[in-house]
Every structure is written in structure tokens, then in C-alpha cells.
Design a protein that fits this description.
The complex is a heterodimer of chains A (306) and B (387).
Chain A: H1 3-34, H2 41-59, H3 62-83, H4 93-115, E1 131-135, E2 138-141, H5 142-164, H6 166-176, H7 178-183, H8 188-210, H9 220-235, H10 240-268, H11 271-296
Antiparallel strand pairs in A: 1-2
Chain B: H1 2-18, E1 24-30, H2 37-53, E2 57-58, E3 61-69, H3 74-87, E4 92-94, H4 99-111, E5 115-118, H5 124-127, E6 135-137, H6 144-155, E7 160-166, H7 169-181, E8 185-192, H8 200-209, E9 213-216, H9 221-232, E10 241-244, H10 250-256, E11 264-267, H11 276-289, H12 295-313, H13 321-330, E12 341-342, E13 348-359, E14 365-377
The chains are: A mainly alpha (306), B alpha/beta (387).
Chain lengths: 306, 387
């Protein structure tokens, strides 16, 4: 193993973590502030990816496609909140899980009816399709670098929004004590709709960034939703900072587990056992991380409220 | 007088039972939804086109086709199979895409002595010691494609190949098939999680390992993801990509496009396979469904045609199971792949071709047949089959 490979894997971990952060940020806010378990969060990500892919093809411009796609998904999210999810806030978590699970099924079938079963094509825009030489011997795909930059920019913007602005203050108030925030006269209804829309927009952004790298297909939301939930739980429910640290941790641990675990095991154990155990251990590494974190800090790394 | 009447009735009854059945029932269970749904839909479309070409009557018998979606869940598939075998009493079953689904269904279907014709997955145990008089594979044994790739790599003198496949039994079968014919070294052998999304880690490892080719077996969405990211990483210029036909079927090519260009792969059929049956199949498929067929669709079509030929050979007497079995074994039909016959384990003896992804004159990404790797190739398991 060389330092170049190690650095490259660090970048891979960071990029994967930042994408998870975009999904986990929306999820943690909805979960923390509205006390709503939204399993359909992954469906918004899928909707975002499909809309961005379709609009990019229709307009011929990736930038335009992304902008319109994000706006459309945000509107879709807000409509969903106003029409359906609003009625679920007072229900227990089981009803929320059942209702949003139904939404997943509806979203998947609707997508299949509209776009068909074949995955959509969305290739990387030409300007970002090459590789960039970062160090002698270390070239990295330009699009993945863009993802890292976009992820960091969004994280910084969210940090400023949540910590420095009045809206952020309301969001934090809602997350730590909803009843008290309402008693103080915060217009919770409007705030919830806005937060849900913002979460949907972040989903769409993640979908737009990942669509050129992954298959845009029915069911793409579920596979990533589980990772987003793991991230939220590790970081502490309702905490943007927790979502950020948790996402980076999950990204790096998963990447390093896959990259180095089989090699390390092969050095320490008989090859036949190492070959069988390596991939298995690598794929459960993030769940081991979650178990570890919850054992020491049952409410996650950055618990909100008291 | 009474004796006469008795004989009359007996004769009547005998002639009745010797008469052909008035219809044939086919049970089709396949994965039609979810991420694996693309494959099942292709098989179903191919099968229905075959039924249409037979005028809705397989072997001249009015055909009732029951289609169900197993959702890629073994338990769902098992329930559906039990219903079809016990309540609907189907004559022949087909349709399953994935090996784990077939494993769940196979005891029910074969235990009830119902014929099963697999249009896709070809489990190697059923080709060997567990071969069954009621089981037929119109497709391939599951390591045939990778055997062909291994033979090609070995013949061309490749010395240092990097292998990537999902960590599940199917993946290990495929790698075993590759190693049976490829004798060079492995630059790396990576088993990823089934359904993995991001392959940046593995692609970085490939870059560092500097192999002289990368062999991939990543079916469905996994392959789409890998190929997109592979092109992104810019390795395609230096390292040739080679895989089984499953990673480069027409539906994948249509979804991924550019990144697949130039990739080599092995399969038993192609769009340009040169025979009149295939030309008609490709043209009519495109006309009916608005897309080009892939090998899955060709296998679905052949499954229908195999049944059509066998039912015609037994003159519609599908309830005479020994006769129907002999007719299926004779495989009296024109396959879209060209020459086709069954080995004694009911798996095909057929050719395997090397294909390369090109851009055709309409700007579509398609496979072009560039060489024949195996002629009349069987599988490594037939010797263990005592049938």
C-alpha cells in the first residue's frame, strides 16, 4: 500500500461521507424537529435524481437541470408535508412508519409507471468528466472533487443558517423543545413546511450529484436510506453537527473497511479464512461503528436537548 | 348386450384419454419489479413475443399464460409456485431470473413432476449430481460465460487480471468458471457487498494494482454504477475491461452508453447472430416493444419456442409426461442463437462468442460479435449427472 493509494482512499471516504451528509441533514431535522420518522426520505432522493436526469435531458444543460430539479423536488416535498405528513405529527411512530412506508411503495410504482423499469441515463457533464492531478501520481476524477466541494459548501451554509440566523434559532428551538417553542409564539406550521422543503432540496442535490455516478433506477432510495439513518443515529437525532461528523465517520469507516480490511486480515490470519471474513467484515464495519458509538453514547455523539 | 355396452363405454373412455388436451397452461413466475425487474421484464417480453409468433397457440394448443411477479423474494415465489402447481395445475413452468428464487421454488415444482424450463439462471448443481428429468435449461450453466472469458484471456496471453464480483454464491461460481480456463496470475480479487453503490474504493485499488485487464461480474444496477464510475476515473484508456454478457446486455448499454464503448464480453447470443429466426426475432421485438432485445429476451423467446416445438411433437398430448420429456430433450425448434441441443443433463450444448461494444450507424451502443470462443461447448458438471 502506498501513500498515494491511502490519500486517494481518504478522498473517497470524504466524498461518500459528504453525500451521506446531504441526505442525513434533512432526515435529522425532520426527525428531530417534527418528531416524524420519514421512511420516504429516500423516495425524495429518488424523485430528485429522476427529475434532475429528465430535466437535464430536456434542457440540455446539467446546471439548469440541477437547479430546476432541486426546485421541483422541494415543491414536491412541501406539497407532501402540507397534504399528508402534517396529519401524522400527532400520531405515534408506528403509524408514521406505516404511512411513510406506504409512500415508498407508491413512489416506486409511480416512478415505474412514468419512467419505466430501465435505469435512466445521466452522464457527467463534459466540463467535469476528466480527472485532475492533485499530486504527482495522484489523479482524481473531477466530478468526485466537485462533489466534495459542493458537500463542504452546503455544510458551511447549513452551519451558518442554523447557528447564525433567526430561522436557525427557531429550528434549534424546535429541535430541543417543540412545545416551548410553540408557546413562545413560533409559527411552527410554516417552519415545518420550510424545513421539510429544505430537506427535500438537499435530497435532490444528493440525487443530482450521485445520478451521474449511480444507476438512476426505481428503489435507489432504499439502499441509501439505511445508511442515512445509521448516520443520523450515530450523530445524535436532530443535530446538524452530529449529522456532519456522523456522515464523515460512516464514509471513512466504510471506505477504509472495504479498502484495507481484507489486506490486513490476510496478513494476520490464514488466507482461506481471511478471504471469507474480509468482505463480510468490511460490509458490516459501519454497523460495528454504530454499535460502538451507541454503547458509549446511547443518544449519539451530539445529543440535542437534555 | 350389457357386455357390449361396457366395451363401448370402455372404448369411449380410452379414446377420450388418448385425445389431445384442449389447452396448455404455462406458469410464468419472474422478477418483474424492483431493481432486478428489468431482467424479468425482458424475459417476459421475449416469451410473449414467442407466444405471439406461435399464433397464441404453443404447439397448436390454445395457451393459457399465467404471469406472476416474485418481487425477487424467495418466499413470495414459493407461494406463487405452490398455487400454480396445486390449484391452477399448470403443465409447464418458467420465468425465474435469480438462482436463490429458483432454489426456493424448485422442490415444489419438480416434486410435483411439473416441467420447469429455466429461461435464465442455470444452477450448477442442477447441471450435475442434482440433475432432474423435469428440469431443462434453455439458457446456460451459470459459469459458462465466465469460462468463455477465461478461455479468451488465456488464449490472448493475459498474465495479470483484476477480478471484481459481488460476495455471494453466484459470484464465486463465476470466478471458479474463469479460473477453470484462465491460468495467469490475479492482480487482485475483490468481493464486494451485493448491491453496493459506490466503487471508488475498488477502482482506486485497480489503479494501484496496474492489471493488464479488469474482469467484472456485476449484474444489473451494480454494473451500471461501476461502469459510470470506471469511465469517470479515466482508467478505460489504459486498462481493458472484460466481463460476462450479463454486465453488457442491451438494457445496460442503453442505460450507461458511452462508458461501455470498447468493452469485451462473452455470451451465447447477440443481436447480430446470423440466422433467419434471429433476424425476425430482433426486428419484431423492436417493433413491438420499441427497444432492442437483449440475451434475456432471447432466452424467454427460446423458452416459448422450445415448448412450441415439443408440444407439436407430442401432437398436443401434454399429459403424457414421458413423451413430452422426450420431445423437450429432442429440442425440435429453431433457436435464435443458431445451433442448439440439449446435453444429457438437459443443459445446452452451444457456441459462446466474444462481443465488443460499438456504436452502430444509428448512434446506439450495441454489441458486435468479434470471435467465436467455444464451439458446441457443454459444462463442467454433466459427468456427475446420472440421468
Amino acid at each position: 500500500m502506498t501513500w498515494i493509494l491511502f490519500l486517494e482512499q481518504c478522498l473517497n471516504g470524504l466524498q461518500f461521507g459528504l453525500m451521506l451528509f446531504l441526505l442525513a441533514a434533512g432526515l435529522t431535522l425532520v426527525f428531530g424537529i417534527m418528531d416524524l420518522i420519514n421512511l420516504a426520505h429516500g423516495s425524495l432522493y429518488m424523485a430528485g435524481a429522476y427529475l434532475v436526469a429528465t430535466l437535464t435531458q430536456a434542457t440540455g444543460s446539467f446546471m439548469l437541470g440541477v437547479t430546476l430539479g432541486i426546485a421541483a423536488t422541494a415543491l414536491l416535498g412541501m406539497a407532501l408535508e402540507v397534504l399528508l405528513l402534517r396529519g401524522l405529527y400527532k400520531r405515534d411512530h408506528l403509524s408514521q412508519v406505516l404511512a411513510t412506508f406506504a409512500l415508498i411503495l407508491i413512489a416506486n410504482e409511480t416512478t415505474r409507471v412514468i419512467w419505466g423499469v430501465q435505469p435512466l441515463t445521466l452522464n457527467v457533464p463534459d466540463t467535469l468528466s476528466g480527472s485532475v492531478q492533485l499530486l504527482p501520481g495522484l489523479t482524481y476524477p473531477a466530478f468526485r472533487l466537485t462533489i466534495i466541494l459542493v458537500g463542504l459548501a452546503v455544510a458551511a451554509a447549513l452551519y451558518i443558517l442554523v447557528v447564525k440566523t433567526r430561522i436557525g434559532m427557531l429550528i434549534r428551538a424546535g429541535a430541543s423543545n417543540r412545545q416551548m417553542a410553540m408557546a413562545m409564539g413560533t409559527d411552527i406550521k410554516w417552519l415545518f413546511t420550510a424545513v421539510f422543503g429544505a430537506g427535500a432540496a438537499l435530497c435532490a442535490l444528493a440525487g443530482a450529484m450521485l445520478a451521474p455516478l449511480l444507476a438512476v433506477e426505481v428503489g435507489m432510495g432504499e439502499s441509501i436510506l439505511i445508511l442515512a439513518f445509521v448516520t443520523v443515529v450515530i450523530g445524535g437525532i436532530g443535530s446538524i453537527r452530529g449529522a456532519f461528523i456522523g456522515a464523515i465517520l460512516v464514509g471513512v469507516v466504510d471506505t477504509f473497511g472495504r479498502a484495507f480490511m481484507p489486506t490486513l486480515l490476510r496478513a494476520a490470519l490464514p488466507p482461506s479464512f481471511a478471504d471469507a471474513a474480509g468482505p463480510a467484515l468490511a460490509s458490516i464495519s459501519i454497523y460495528l461503528l454504530m454499535v460502538g458509538v451507541l454503547f458509549w453514547k446511547p443518544r449519539g455523539l451530539f445529543p440535542v436537548g437534555s | 348386450m350389457r357386455k357390449k355396452l361396457f366395451f363401448l363405454i370402455l372404448a369411449g373412455a380410452l379414446s377420450l384419454s388418448a385425445q389431445a388436451a384442449d389447452k396448455i397452461k404455462i406458469g410464468f413466475i419472474g422478477t418483474l419489479s424492483g431493481p432486478g425487474g428489468v431482467i424479468g421484464v425482458a424475459i417476459r417480453d421475449g416469451f410473449q413475443l414467442g407466444l405471439e409468433h406461435a399464433g397464441g397457440k404453443l404447439g397448436g394448443l390454445p395457451t393459457e399464460l399465467l404471469i406472476e411477479d416474485d418481487q425477487q423474494k424467495p418466499d413470495v415465489a414459493k407461494q406463487l409456485a405452490e398455487r400454480m402447481v396445486k390449484r391452477d395445475k399448470v403443465d409447464i413452468m418458467t420465468g425465474i431470473v435469480f438462482q436463490n428464487i429458483l432454489q426456493a421454488v424448485e422442490p415444489t415444482v419438480l416434486g410435483a413432476e411439473t416441467f420447469y424450463i429455466t429461461p435464465n439462471t442455470g444452477p450448477t448443481d442442477l447441471a450435475g449430481a442434482a440433475c432432474n428429468p423435469y428440469f431443462f435449461a434453455v439458457s446456460w450453466a451459470s459459469d459458462n460465460y465466465s469460462e468463455a472469458v477465461g478461455k479468451h484471456l488465456n488464449d490472448k496471453g493475459f498474465k495479470n487480471v483484476f477480478v471484481i464480483t459481488p460476495n455471494y454464491p453466484g459470484g464465486k461460481d463465476v470466478v471458479a468458471g474463469l479460473k477453470r480456463y484462465y491460468k495467469g496470475a490475479l492482480a487482485g480479487e475483490v468481493y464486494t457487498k451485493l448491491g453496493q453503490l459506490d466503487y471508488a474504493v475498488e477502482i482506486s485499488q485497480m489503479r494501484a494494482a496496474k492489471p493488464d485487464a479488469v474482469f467484472l461480474f456485476l449484474p444489473g444496477g451494480m454494473g451500471v454504477n461501476f461502469l459510470k464510475q470506471w469511465q469517470q476515473a479515466g482508467l478505460g484508456k489504459d486498462i481493458p475491461l472484460i466481463g460476462t454478457g450479463w454486465s453488457f446486455d442491451q438494457d445496460t448499454l442503453a442505460a450507461v452508453g458511452e462508458p461501455t464503448l470498447g468493452a469485451l464480453n462473452a455470451a451465447h447470443w447477440n443481436l447480430d447472430t446470423n440466422n433467419p429466426t434471429n433476424k425476425k426475432f430482433v426486428a419484431d421485438f423492436e417493433k413491438k416493444y420499441g427497444r432492442l432485445p437483449n440475451e434475456y429476451a432471447s432466452q424467454g423467446y427460446d423458452a416459448a419456442m422450445l415448448i412450441d416445438g415439443a408440444v407439436r411433437d407430442v401432437k398436443g398430448k401434454v399429459e403424457d409426461k414421458p413423451a413430452l420429456r422426450r420431445a423437450l430433450e429432442a429440442a425440435n425448434f429453431k433457436s435464435v442463437r443458431g445451433a442448439f441441443k440439449f446435453n444429457k443433463n438437459h443443459f445446452p450444448i452451444q457456441n459462446y462468442y466474444l462481443r465488443q461494444v460499438i456504436k452502430d450507424d444509428k448512434g446506439r451502443f450495441v454489441n458486435k460479435t468479434v470471435a467465436t470462443i467455444f464451439t458446441d461447448h457443454s459444462d463442467a458438471y454433466v459427468a456427475a449427472c446420472k440421468m
